[in-house]
Amino acid sequence: MAEGSAAVPSTELLEWPKKDKRRFLHAVYRVGDLDRTIKFYTECFGMKLLRKRDIPEEKYSNAFLGFGPEESHFVVELTYNYGVTSYDIGTGFGHFAIATPDVYKMVEDIRAKGGNITREPGPVKGGSSVIAFVKDPDGYIFELIQRASTPEPLCQVMLRVGDLDRSVKFYEKVVQSKITFFLDFCFSN
Ligand SMILES: C[C@@H](O)C(=O)SC[C@H](NC(=O)CC[C@H](N)C(=O)O)C(=O)NCC(=O)O
Ligand SMILES: [Zn+2]
């Protein structure tokens, strides 16, 4: 089965950001211990802590981490609600993905630092991309994808949807994003 095919010609994709300055800024999710996650993401994934904010009157803190400044890079925004130490992640969230030139080496580095590798490196089922999965301290999954070095290593958020075409229509029409890569194998069943 084909791994996937570009849905939009790459020349158009390359030209598009020069005209349309909108972009994904961040994904926000809740964690049970901000410092524990910051330590894991900086030491195991190589992210940098970009900024923190604390809102005591609302009883929550945020931390922003990524592989570059927010002005030019997609980042994760962690939210810690005072006193809440764990969350039910549910089944809709799939994974974040980090691109790296050597998944095997990154997995060994993470394992040596005590990281939880939940899927060993190797070609993705039904395709050829080399991937691995790592579970973070709250249970969120990060996929490591082997790719040539890229200015944007934090390259994907996988969410499970109930109707792929319905979501594509919504994202194209309402959010005005474009399909950058149409996978031939379907969303989860
Ligand atoms: C394209 C790459 O970024 C992927 O994430 S494909 C990874 C692949 N995904 C699925 O199988 C999705 C369906 C699944 N039922 C789900 O709901 O997660 C995957 O996880 N493959 C497993 C493997 O070991 O290769
Ligand atoms: Zn993925």
Supply database-style keywords.
binds zinc ion, 2,3-Dihydroxybiphenyl 1,2-Dioxygenase, domain 1, binds the ligand C[C@@H](O)C(=O)SC[C@H](NC(=O)CC[C@H](N)C(=O)O)C(=O)NCC(=O)O, single chain, 4-stranded mixed beta sheet, disordered C terminus, 5-stranded mixed beta sheet, 189 residues, 4 helices, globular
Task: Give a concise summary.
Zn(2+) binds at residues 77, 95, 143. This protein has 189 residues and is an alpha+beta fold.
Secondary-structure topology with pairs:
Layout: H1 10-19, E1 26-30, H2 34-45, E2 48-55, E3 60-66, E4 75-81, E5 93-100, H3 103-112, E6 116-123, E7 130-135, E8 141-146, E9 154-159, H4 164-173
Parallel strand pairs: 1-4, 5-8
Antiparallel strand pairs: 2-3, 3-4, 5-9, 6-7, 7-8
Zinc ion binds next to strand 5 and strand 9.
